[in-house]
Amino acid sequence: MSICPKNKSSKSRRDKRRANWKMKIPNLVKCSKCGAYMMSHRVCKACGSYNKRQVIEVD
pTM of the prediction? Predict the structure, then answer.
């Protein structure tokens, strides 16, 4: 058996469900060590630090 709708959904009702699939701008914060903008809870790509500690070496 497959799913079979009881009544037809109109195009506007169907498209209202899909209206919230838009992309969001990522939340950027300043790095506490170098001041560059980065995504929160991630290693800074500019200086390689996380939570004021050097994690990776950046050239």
Answer: 0.58
